Every structure is written in C-alpha cells, then in structure tokens.
Amino acid sequence: MRAEKKQMVQELVDRMNGQSVILITYQGLKANAINSFRAKVADDAVKGSCHVVQNTLIKKAAAELGYKELAELDLSGDTAMVTGADAVALVKAIKEFAADKEKAREMVKIKLSYVEGQLLNAKDTLALADLPPKEVVQAQLLGLIQAPAAGIARAINAKLSSVVYVLDSLRKKLEEGQTA
Asked: What's the whole-model pTM score?
C-alpha cells in the first residue's frame, strides 16, 4: 500500500476508534447540501463528523481496528462516513436533515452502522433515532437505582416519626398528671 493510502487509513482508524460509525449514501446531493449536512452533524449537540471515504479504505481501517463484520462487508456506491460518540444523536441528525431538505430523503440514506461492537442494518440504525439521548437514559437508570433506597429512608423516617409522636404524647400526659 502506498504511503499516502496508509496515512489515509490511519486517519480513518483514528476517527473510527471508540466511536459510533454510520455509513450513508449521498448520491445526487449537491456540494452546498453536503456542507450543510456536515455542519448539522458537527453541531454542539451532536459533536460528530462526516467524511466522504472510499469503500476499500473503510474496510481496511475496520480490519485494523478488528471490526471483522464491517471489514468483510461488500460495500458499493458512494459512501460517506459519519462518526461520533453518541449514535442516537448522529442518527437523529441524519434523519432530521433528510426530512428538512427537499429531495434529500431519496439522496441521503443510511447503509449500515457499527455501534458499540455491533453491526446494524439500516432499519435497526434508524430505530436508534427513537431512543432518548444517552444522558436521559442514564438519569432514568439512576432514578431506578435510587428509588429503593429512597423508599427505605422514608419508611425508617416514618417509624422514627411515630416513635417521636408516642414519646411526645407520653410527655404531655406526664406533664398534665404533674400539674393536676
């Protein structure tokens, strides 16, 4: 492999390593629309990137990373690689872009994705857009974990309160008995 191709593969390895990878087709999309798409993906909420890449280079980078399923795929046609830490945010950005732009729905299509060690087809990748963001899921999980502890704390607090009420009632009776 030529030195410049090795460098390009290394750049792809760096972009793909530890990231969610979504491969899309963009056939027929004009340059200004691609730039608009790149800006949407690079937005602060998404924090991703989009690069047009040769299919063979994607496969070589996947092989170097040990993404066996991705490396063995038969990729064809125009391919852009969208990468980022949050797969859900990436898919939502792709879906929103396709919905916003005229005719983009036919031009921008998800081929497949490689998310957290799993190869997903286009249908499964699009299903990610229906999931809540990662932070919301983490907050919900934390709430579920904390709920039993909070219930125990309330139960203990209720028992302590009832003991205090009984002692306070006894104190009042004793005071009434001494004043009478």
From this structure: 0.72
109 burial class (0-12, 13-18, 19+ CB within 10 angstroms)? middle
Q: DSSP 3-state assignment of 100? A: helix
Question: pLDDT (tens digit, 0 to 9) for every residue of the chain, 180 residues total?
Answer: 688 889 999 999 999 998 999 999 988 888 888 888 899 889 887 889 999 999 999 999 999 999 999 889 888 989 999 999 988 889 999 988 888 766 666 678 899 999 998 999 999 998 988 888 778 888 888 888 888 877 787 888 787 778 888 888 888 888 887 765
CATH H-level, domain 3-131: superfamily: Ribosomal protein L10, N-terminal RNA-binding domain (3.30.70.1730)
CB 116 within 8 A of CB 86: no
Helix axes 31-41, 87-100, angle to 10 degrees: 140
Please provide the DSSP assignment of 32-93 as one string.
HHHHHHHHHHTSTTT--EEEE--HHHHHHHHHHHT-HHHHTS---S--EEEEES-HHHHHHH
